[in-house]
Amino acid sequence: MHEGPEPLPVDRTSYVGRDEELAVARKLLAAGPIVTLVGPGGVGKSRLAARVATEARFNDGVAFIELADLGDPQLLASTVADRLGLRDQSARPAVDAVVEHLRDRRTLLVLDNCEHLVGACGAFVAALVSACPRLAVLATSRQSLGIAGERLLSVLPLAAPGVDEVVSAADAQRFDSVRLFADRAAAVVPGFTVTDGNCRDIARVCRALEGLPLAIELAAVRLRSLSLGQIAGRLTRPMSLLTVGRRTGPPRQQTLRAMIDWSHQLCSEPERLVWARASVFSGTFGLEAAEQVCGGAGVEPGLVLDLVDALLDKSILVREEQDGLARYRMLETLREYGHDRLVASGDADRVRRLHRDWYAELTARLESGWVGKDQIAWVARLRNEHANLRAALDFCVTEPGEATAGLVMATRIGPYWGIRSLYSEARMWIDRTLALTPARAPGRVGALRLHGMFALLQGDREAAERLLAEAEELCADRTEGAYLAVVRGMAALFAFDGARARDLLDDARAVFRESGVLNGELFAAYLGALATALCGDPDKGRIRLRETIATCERMGEVSYHSLALWALSSIEILYGDSASAHRATLPALRLTGLIDNRIVEAFLVTNLVLIAADKGEHRRCALLLGAADSMWTALGTDPEEVGWLSGRRRDAIAATREALGEAAFTDARATGRAMPRREAVRVALNDTVPTITPVAGDFGPLTRREAEIAGLIAQGLTNKDIAARLFIAPRTAETHVAHILAKLGFNTRAQIAGWVVRLPERAQR
Which InterPro entries does this UniProt record tie to the protein (predicted)? Predict the structure, then answer.
């Protein structure tokens, strides 16, 4: 179970042509597991892949993974795992987590923009398809992945008219390139159409641009300032922009370069500077960052907004809205062009340092502002800035003398790494910066401590002990020493040494309180209260947790609030009653959703499994057990690691299996395991159990979820009823029903009902 990958890219403009390529791509995917769409930059590979993915029919869905913003091949597998909704809680390689997740799924995995990671992508895809027999992979790249079983589909420029092929509008509109130009031109000049009078100029433009979609779109934008005849004339002038660029590349790349060169020449000098400087951003960026990084040295900082607006108008930048704020990005081809210009100017190091400084300052503000009412906004902001944080850290480990700044940055991001369970990535950056910094560099103790804590959470206890011991040897700061004591207390809890954990955590809490370090105090407080209860004093543990909860409520703090409620829920399960445990668990589960804290969510759903068992709600217990199974699998860890509840969990499983019987228990658990993560959380929060229609034997071509929906159709439920029963969107229910009809070759719901009725007969046969 996972929240699922990011949604498929949405076409913000109409899709023109490519019918033949769509048909061929579908056939190739049916014939083999690996298909790569190859072609030059700007030819439309990504949009074609998105179109293929939108129309694909795979039982377990489509995962579209955009790789253009990823610069480090070492992060490929962990990035794919993250986009699939997995979290690298374990110390195992991320590729293993992806393999385990996809092993038995009929999924289409789309890897978009592989060219800069072609070696890593080839090895990664080869590993996946060898271990996941039902998986299909669709890649886009400027070159093939070069692996066995790969089928290539060349994505060529759109058909463009020859010199004498167009004498009328009807002639011109036979060509996809002309129809694309006309479509994009109409967006710039309302009412623009292909006519007998302009068709030849349109044909000249499309022919000169060799049918390249990006070049055609850029040319259409120029209609804001030039006539169609002027555009056609500039493109055909001898020694004009069409001959400028990478002369060693194929003609279509020279043409694209020429088109971008032309757009560049039409920009003012300040616009060109902002274009080049903005190329250091990875993914999207905001206006404040642009003002810091792109302003100065020839660009008035107060004019950056106007210059960004001008680049948006020229289609150099694209505007997106994230969490209510406007952000900007460049198409990768345009970003590469800007980067080339920046390097050629000799200004790249200065601008990259400004970029790093902006994100270093952002992490400093995170460190000071994490505990408080802005925490939810911080998590959202850091998620949007993740690619830029990576770029800034990469600067620190590749530029001589900058590693110490990277060490401090990686440590300050600790709360974000933890919330998102990105432990392996955090440890990688800390490892790389530690290797480049002096033994007593500022921030080294904190980095070692964070590295050790994440190793501990991944079950890598040998590494955790080594890292914590080194940190303790270097530590000369009382507050940092208290943080080390908290991690040691956490390790003692994991080792079932409650008394040692309590003493360490109480001492640390006293230091934090005396020093006014609220983050540390809350950290030590909730763990110390849990340790106190485990040492035989649950009443004292409850009192301390309620104090912590009250502090968090007063401040609007979310992370420690949910953790304190989880600890209280655990104490009530062990020493109190199920009603009290339930009252603590549900608000904690709502809070985790605000910051997407997956590991706390998994702990809380596991607590609800135990609560349901205590209340005799056996089917709900089995269903939530399956949901928790998938959550823990996605995190790559095991709930048995938390020893103080593992015995209760085993007892709950045994009692539920006995109460339901093996078949019903297995079916309910499997239903829970198959639920999407958000659906499972809704079920947990609403204290309900979806109807589980026992569908015995072979499901035929249907998935378990589709068989369940088929059973509900047989009961006479409408799509709206099914959506309400299963806590899914009505549109999702409609899609499932459409898939069922298509797979079974039926036209009516009555036929589905008859199929369900006949299932027992099929099982007996």
Answer: AAA_22, P-loop_NTPase, Sig_transdc_resp-reg_C-effctor, Tscrpt_reg_LuxR_C, WH-like_DNA-bd_sf
SS (H, E, C) 482-531: HHHHHHHHHHHHHCCCHHHHHHHHHHHHHHHHHHCCHHHHHHHHHHHHHH
Token pair 């809680």 in the structure block, residue:
89
Structure tokens of 323? 């969490």
Cα distance between residue 199 and residue 290, in whole Å: 41
Coil/strand/helix, residue 477? coil
pLDDT tens per residue across span 561-588: 999 999 999 999 999 999 999 999 999 9
φ and ψ of 753, to 5 deg: -60, -40
The residues, ordered by sequence, that sit 6+ positions from 514 with a Cβ below 8 Å of its Cβ are none
Residue in this structure with the two tokens 């490519």, named with its chain if needed: 18
Number of H helices, E strands in the chain: 39, 7
Instruction: Give the whole-angstrom CA distance, residue 610 versus residue 578.
Output: 8
Q: For 200-250, how does the pLDDT look when each residue is reduced to its tens digit (9 = 90+)?
A: 999 988 888 878 888 888 888 888 888 898 888 877 542 233 333 333 343
What whole-number distance in Å separates Cα of residue 134 and Cα of residue 150? 15
The SS3 assignment for 35 reads strand
717 Cβ contact partners less than 8 Å away, ≥ 6 residues apart:
725
Beta strands in 150-304 (DSSP E): 150-154
Place of tokens 């062009």: 337
> Is the distance from CB of 153 to CB of 24 less than 8 angstroms?
yes
Q: What is the mean predicted confidence (pLDDT) over 332-357?
A: 93
Ramachandran category for residue 43: left, alpha or beta (phi over 0 → left; psi -120 to 50 → alpha): alpha
Share of the chain above pLDDT 90, in %: 53
Cα(696)–Cα(356) distance, integer angstroms = 59
Using alpha carbons, list the distances in angstroms from residue 141 to 25, 109, 113, 144, 255.
15, 14, 5, 7, 19
Task: Give the residue carrying structure tokens 């005849």.
Answer: 229
Phi/psi of residue 757, nearest 5 degrees: -60, -35
Residues 24, 29: Cα–Cα separation, whole Å: 9
Q: Cα dist. 536→498, 533, 575 in Å?
A: 9, 5, 9
Give yes or no for a contact between 255 and 318, defined as CB atoms under 8 angstroms apart.
Answer: no
**Which segments of 517-642 does DSSP mark as H helices, in order?**
518-534, 538-555, 559-575, 578-595, 598-614, 618-635
Residue 136, strand partner residues = 108
State how far the Cα of 172 lies from the Cα of 235, in Å rounded to an integer: 19
Rounded to whole angstroms, how far apart are CA atoms 452 and 460? 9
Q: What is the dihedral of CA 246, 250, 251, 252, to 10 degrees?
A: -100
Q: Which among 145, 85, 16, 181 is positioned nearest to 598, based on CA atoms?
A: 85
Q: What are phi and psi of 303, to 5 degrees?
A: -100, 0
